[in-house]
Amino acid sequence: MEQETDNMRSNKICKNRREEAALFAWPWGNLHSFKYLLYGPLVARVLYAVYIDGEVKNDDWCLHILMLSGLRAFVHQLWSTFSCMLFVNRTRRINQQGVEFDQIDAEWHWDNFLILQTFAASFLYLSFPSLANLPIWDMRGVICCLMLHMGISEPLYYWLHRLLHSSSLFQQYHWLHHSSKVLHPYTAEHATFLEHILLCVVVGIPTLGTVFIGYGSIILMYGYFLVFDFLQCLGHCNVEVFPHRLFEAIPLLKYLIRPPTYHSLHHSDMGTNFCLFMPLYDKLWKTMNTNSWDLQREISSRTNSRAPDFVFLAHIVDVMSAMHSPFIYRSFSSIPFSAKPFLFPGWPITYMVMLVMWAKSKTFLFSFYYLRGRLFQTWAVPRFGFQYFLPFATEGINKQIEDAILTADKIGVKVISLAALNKNEGLNGGGTLFTNKHPNLKVRVVHGNTLTAAVILNDLPQDVEEVFLTGATSKLGRAIALYLARRKVKVLMLTLSTERFAKIQKEAPVDCQKYLVQVTKYQAAQHCKTWIIGKWMTPREQYCAPSGTHFHQFVVPPVIPFRRDCTYGKLAAMRLPDDVEGLGTCEYTMERGVVHACHAGGLVHFLEGWKHHEVGAINVDQIDVVWEAALRHGLKPL
Ligand SMILES: [Zn+2]
Ligand SMILES: [Zn+2]
Fold first, then answer.
1. CA 155 to ligand 2 centroid distance, Å
2. What are the beta bridge partners of residue 468?
3. Bridge partners of 531?
4. Distance from the CA of 70 to the center of ligand 1, in angstroms?
5. How far is the CA of 207 from the centre of ligand 2 (A)?
6. How would you classify the pairing of strands 466-469 and 444-446?
7. Does the reported pTM lie above 0.85?
8. Which residues form the Fatty acid hydroxylase domain (predicted)?
9. Ligand nearest to the CA of 160
10. S-S: 421 plus which of 34, 111, 361, 388, CB 3.0-4.6 Å?
11. Residue 376 is inside which H or E element, if any?
């Protein structure tokens, strides 16, 4: 604890120093996303060339700089995708923690270095016009460039890096790179302006050197920078990708290439492993971490990852929101989902992926977080919302859910919570299908809707006397109606089925039955200002509500708000406890740190250690019990 306070204090000191240190911040930092306008002059020149000559010539250096920048960003994106694909890499992750929102925000502008290097390259081309006349390819250049890289850039980087770890330079600059707790490919570029200027020198020596010696070529330029970025991302990807046998078969490799574990040790033990890509220099100057190759062997030979304690079994909503995955755009998945224009080009590809998933894919690990030392995972059934409404698809979906439950049971998961449509009444009776079929399950199957009901009910005004309820005979509608009737609140239940209404009414205590009233038209609620909506509503139906009505909702997706003179509630949700760790993705449209109430319901079931399944109809007696338990465990209403 004391050490933590020290860390916090030194962070503060570092942050104060940040303001003092020259060349710490990026000159275009205040432009935020408008910084991309800085590419404008180059783009304009390329467009102008097309306009004047009708084509872009091969010697147009502006075009090459732009294309290389794009490709370099793409290399980072591919590595980010790989690093976030937990279903591919979970056994070989080096740091088992998750990347948190703070780190994602800090690394948001990881691509600043591309703008800097674009400026540097443009400046060089303008200063040395001969640079624009490089041949496509010259074999001799590769050898020359490699020699300059290995002989000058590597040792230069090594000593610059050691210098940056001297106490004053570290506190002024290099702490920023080391402030990222869990390495990610973007962390590779998360450094100060000054450090990236130094890096320009490191990459400039082999490339410009080769050109000035006379062996430069266009392919060499592309190749060097792309390989450089590839190796930087590799070092920071937080997944050990090399089999240890490779280093045992070719021991020389241990001096030529740093595997991801090697650089991760530099981040955990800062006095060691300073090299750029070649551990040779750590060996030479005796800074190689003695644990480097044991850790590499240990992690690369892992066959199992830690089993989670709790699983939230989600599904994909639609093609657009499928692109809200961390392995597509990490930054985008760290903010609540909403359809953005930049997603549209990805729609056809995602649609194709959806078809492939339908044919082949199994339930996969999507995201995770830790709470009080326990591991909580979200698994995704590879099915989209619309598929749940195709009669011929339901059997396949239930098979997916059943397989997930049986897997969870086998690996020792305590609670599996079914999300959204995975517990659809018509699909599997709110989960009863599985608990009936497998009576000896050790894992508890939970729909979590008891807490959903509790959240909706606790959102109602304390002194409410009358509510209007649609979707009134659904699982949630029934529980809400019965709970309110017991509290002597009059419930206008919209349903055409007198039989279903009567069945629910009979469940209420005799003296409370009179509070449940069947209505068949929206007009019946034209004087009631508290509407609880469990069914999609047209604008015309919304206009039946009196001015000033508040629409509470449990309909998925939520209704489109048409009334300016009314207010609309959001879907039932709760904020996770403050001590949650490793959280860096938003659950669909939820804010950061907020989860759907049914997710929270499963969590409470786990934290309480309850031994019953929570499937089928909601137990009205449990609503207050679950609500109080949720608050006790630190979950918060919004
Ligand atoms: Zn360092
Ligand atoms: Zn690093």
1. 16
2. 492, 531
3. 468, 551
4. 27
5. 23
6. unpaired
7. yes
8. 147-287
9. 1
10. 388
11. strand 374-384
